[in-house]
Amino acid sequence: MLEAFQLSNTELGLCYSVYGLVALPAYLFGGPLADRFPPRKLIAIALWATALGGLVYASYPSPLVLKILYGYWGCTTIFLFWAAMIKATRVWGGNTSQGKAFGFLDGGRGLVGASFGLLGVFIFSLFASGDFENISFEERKEAFKYVVWVSAIIVTVVGILVWFFLKSDRDEKELLVERISAKEIGTLLRIPSVWLLMIIILCAYVGYKFTDIFSQYANEVMGYNQVDSAKVGTFLLSIRPIVGVLIGFMADRSRVSFWLVIGFAVSIVGSLLFASGWVIPNFTALFFLSVLITATGIYAARSLYFAVMKEGRIPLVLTGTAVGLISLVGYTPDIFAGAAMGYLLDQTPGIGGHQNVFWLLTGFSVVGGIASVIFWIWSRKSSKNNT
Question: Which pTM does this prediction carry?
Answer without folding.
Answer: 0.79
